[in-house]
Amino acid sequence: MRQTSVLVDIGSTFTKVTAVDIDEGRILARASAPTTIEDVSIGLRTALQGLGLTEEQLRQARKLACSSAAGGLRMVAIGLVQDLTAKAAKLAALGAGARVLNTYSFQLTESDREEIAALRPDIILLAGGTDGGNSTNILHNARVLASLPDPVPVVIAGNRSVSAEAAACFPQGFDTYIAPNVMPQIGKLQVDPAREVIRKVFMEKIIQAKGLDRASRLIDGIFMPTPAAVLRAGQLLSEGTPTRRGWGDLLIVDVGGATTDVHSLGEGLPTRAGVVVRGLPEPFAKRTVEGDLGVRVSVLSLLEAVSVQAVAQEMDWTEEAVRRRAELLHGQPELLPEDEEEARFDRVLARLAVLHAVSRHVGRLSELYTPAGLLWMQEGKDLSNVTTVIGTGGVLVKSTEPLTALSGAGRQAEAPLELRPENPQFFLDGDYILAAMGLLAQEAPEAAYDILTNSLKSYTLGKEGTAGE
Q1: pLDDT tens digits for 96-144?
Q2: At what angle do helices 299-306 and 308-315 cross, to 10 degrees?
Q3: CA 330, CA 324: separation in Å to the nearest integer?
Q4: What are the structural domains, with CATH classification, of the chain?
Q5: Which DSSP string do the residues of 213-235 spell out, in sequence order?
């Protein structure tokens, strides 16, 4: 019997399912249905029925799922120094597929405690201090968090000398998990172990708390947040498999209605001579989330970030017309363009969202004058040699000219010090399969790699093709 897997992505708006033949490494069928938040199993069942598989085929298939429904994985990250352990904690949370509600540094105050209680995070990541270093801060913060009115799972990934003592601060009702320090030494980043613990907590606790466990009778389990699955697909493409050569460093841009996510796979070390790196080392697999750069729910904040004038000038509209259209999209995020002008408005919004999101993600150069002369300093990742940019998200997939928006990820003449991809080839995830293949990569990486390369559509100098061509 041929091996079949069904990959499920339970989103806040739609539940998407993909059936694949593992032996041949190909897509058999795809379907989607509106997510029924009151009981996600209803929308999931509808989507599964849309695949057209027999009951026996569905029963025999391995069914893996990821989810961003019910707000996804909502986290708070806490560290000691804002640019060191607090940043490391945030990178670990984002890499685990979380939406980071806020980041705190130094000692938590009563006001911070009240704010965290109001945010109601799904998980708290508590870091602080290198191994054998500062212990006062993480213990103080553990005691403050222990007084939260509602118990929250807490992942402790700070100074290992006092991790057990910090865990002991929490009363019964709080579930605590100890992970290796996200920054065991100054200048050394170690976020992957904490990411795995966060994913374990997501599966054990958060799925049940959000009611997603109702879908468990239809699938084998929800294994990770959707953004983590997308990042995993990027890693598979970048690194390859034992029999498939990887693509090398790459960038993934996911333009959504509420956020624009950017994932980069690469060391990001300087590509120019005479450049000195400053700041915390960057993870190979990095994710950033821009909550003010969405093209529907967050479109009003997008206009604030890019300026109404810029959109009006590019559209040749009045500023009032831009505001009216944006307010309509904000109030009715399900709206699709009905004519070419409205489609062009979406393309402009998407390009500006990509432009600004990538600007915030990539590293940049700055000049530093010293007694020995001029030095170039690099902060963040140098992605100038990245040759692959992959776009995903509804506004790109539905566009007749996705390259218009994706071009915002490349080098910009007006920002020469931003370390953006200089001459990339662009690809589009037109089949919405990145998350699905991130799931499949756990159990059948060869098949997942083949499906990705055969599905991603390339755009180079006005020509279209698939990655496998």
Answers
A1: 777 788 899 889 999 999 999 999 998 899 998 888 888 899 999 999 9
A2: 90
A3: 10
A4: 4-69+213-220 (3.30.420.40), 73-205 (3.40.50.2300), 235-466 (no CATH)
A5: GGGGGTSS-EEEEHHHHHHHHHH
